[in-house]
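PROTEIN DATA CARD
Card holder: Probable membrane transporter protein
Chain length: 343
Origin: Halobiforma nitratireducens JCM 10879
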Amino acid sequence: MEPLGLSLGLLALFVAFGFMVGVFFGFFGMGGSFLVTPALLILGYPAPVAIGSSMAFVFGTAVIATMKHHDVGEVDYKLGALMFVGIALGIEAGKVLVYGLEAIGRAELVVGTAYVLLLAAIGGLFVRSALRTGSEVTDDSSGDGNEEEIPEIATKIKSYNLPPMVTLADGSKASMWTISGVGGGVGVVSGFLGVGGGFIRMPAIYYLVGVPLAAAVGTSLFGALMSGAVGAFTYGLDGVVDLGVVTGLLAGSALGARIGSAATAYVDEDDVTIYFGVMLLLASFAVALGEFATWLEMPILDTMSFVLLVGSSAFVTVVIFYYGAQAVRTNDIDPTATARGDD
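Structure generated from the sequence above:
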């Protein structure tokens, strides 16, 4: 008997993998499609099924994680809605670019290479930022440590008053040109690479729009909810969403996403930044192995790629749980300690 059309072993694998991706989704604010889609492709699922099932999974997980961030006031719904307009238009532009490359037979090579480089670049940016922040805290321990967590580049961008201006949830203002530009840019990359775009959207909201990190995560999840809904509906109409795969992934992520979202209230933000970066660097290497497996016709590299994806996911999940447990234990010992201000 195969429940949902899957063997018990494969169903258990999807539940476990869904749990880990759900933790990352709630904790880092990324859609998870850059993990789920490659994993399904490595397991032999056709590309449309892998993408459609991944989008449906992202939508379901985003609903759960966004609800948790909503509970603690970490979602800027106005910003998310304004960005979605640019994202939708950008996705269409990205598709046109892909079709142009496909016409000259270069789509797979260019998209695969861009995917690897982009993941590595964003991962490196976050790791570098976290290490620099840690160094500054060590060298300047006399500071009050209570400044608004806005990156320098975002502060610089916000200093240019280009109307129309939009008031964000934290009371600061941002130009509609910046919001539209970020949304459109994220949409182009998302449409070009065929991914949910959370790993681009969250850093863009944080570094360019200038939203505090916790709110950037929550707002990115809200954007994933809307994007995932559109993607799941579109692919669902084509009948390429595997409900067995989606159900298994969602069964695990339902718990994982809430745990990941709750962990953001206890784990230090520097840890959020550096582990997000490490996760993207590992994902970049795993995707690169998958590309080499295709180019060199070496199935062993596909296996190594899948093991790296699952192994790195398990490692980072354990790390998040460890830091969360340490923070909870410290707060239990010292009642005056607080996590991220409220609650």
